[in-house]
Design a protein that fits this description.
The protein has ten helices and eight strands. It is an alpha/beta fold and 281 residues long. The protein has two domains: 161 residues, Metal-dependent hydrolases (TIM Barrel), CATH 3.20.20; 60 residues, DNA polymerase, domain 1 (Orthogonal Bundle). The structure holds adenosine monophosphate and manganese (II) ion (3 copies).
Length: 281
């Protein structure tokens, strides 16, 4: 194989099957146009886009990597675990994701009620207009509606003003456990990847405990270069990967053109000190 670090891999992206703005095939086209060679669609708690994503990737000449991003609650905060090279037909994974998704409709009603208490009416119906998959209503859909209503200038502003923990539209939710998420991914023959660890607000002790538990459960990789990390965090998580013996992943966390800090397929390569998660694919 060519030098693995030189391969343009983007292994973290979303479509309308979760909280992205484009259908899987349209995301695949953007990946191809950006020169991506290894591509994964990793919708939140959903596998419904995998067949379309694989077919489009093959049509566009990219290597397809089946993926998912699972919502987890660990020490009172939400952590995301990406699964790569999963079998999307694995019953244990399918059933686990169905269970993980099941609370979202109730939570969306509660978010709307919380927003109504600060004077924002009609948020449930508003957010629903942005939902591509009725099983997967996300805070992002509320955020897009609030921006289009002129309440905030950007999605990031909606989160910091209304939807992040401690803000008036935040509703706590209990997702899967870390052991469940890693277990389902492994049952499906995949590799579990700690997503965007730089985004979590843990103490140093909790951070180490999270990685200890993740590796003990059989977690295999960590996102080092992601749209959520600064260059300092690329270096920090390259060190974490080495310390815990984890492979390193790279992914934009693309949700739609112009929505995030980086576009699909445009991140810098992984640092030379780490082993890419795709090194033996
Ligand atoms: P949910 O799974 O419904 O809790 O929504 C989580 C999603 O909200 C994440 O996957 C991101 O797409 C988005 N999100 C979370 N925090 C932020 C933020 N600070 N700025 C922009 N998007 C965010
Ligand atoms: Mn998202
Ligand atoms: Mn995430
Ligand atoms: Mn994501």
């Amino acid at each position: 194989m060519q030098n693995a670090h030189a391969i343009n891999a983007d292994l973290h992206c979303h479509s309308t099957v979760s909280d992205g703005t484009l259908a899987p095939r349209a995301v695949a086209r953007i990946a191809r146009d950006a020169g991506v060679a290894f591509w994964a669609l990793t919708d939140h708690d959903e596998l419904g886009g995998q067949a379309e994503a694989r077919a489009a990737a093959e049509e566009f000449g990219m290597r397809y990597v089946p993926g998912v991003e699972i919502s987890v609650t660990w020490a009172g905060q939400t952590v995301h675990i990406v699964g790569l090279q999963i079998d999307p037909f694995c019953p244990e994974l399918i059933d686990g994701l169905t269970e993980t998704r099941s609370g979202r409709a109730r939570r969306a009603r509660d978010i709307a009620d919380a927003l109504a208490r600060v004077g924002i009416d009609g948020a449930y119906e508003g957010a629903l207009q942005y939902v591509g998959n009725p099983d997967l209503i996300s805070r992002t859909h509320f955020a897009r509606w609030l921006v289009d209503q002129g309440r905030c200038a950007s999605i990031g502003d909606v989160f910091s003003e209304y939807l992040s923990e401690g803000r008036p539209g935040y509703v706590g939710h209990r997702w899967a456990s870390l052991a469940e998420a890693v277990g389902w991914i492994r049952a499906a023959g995949g590799i579990a990847v700690m997503a965007h660890p730089g985004r979590y607000h843990y103490t140093d002790t909790q951070h180490d405990a999270l990685f200890d538990e993740f590796t003990a459960l059989g977690g295999g990789a960590v996102e080092v270069v992601t749209g959520s990390h600064t260059p300092d965090q690329y270096r920090r998580y390259a060190e974490v990967a080495r310390h815990y013996g984890l492979l390193a992943s790279r992914g934009s966390d693309f949700h739609g053109p112009g929505e995030g800090r980086v576009e699909l397929g445009t991140l810098p390569p992984l640092p030379p000190t780490v082993t890419p998660v795709w090194h033996d694919w």
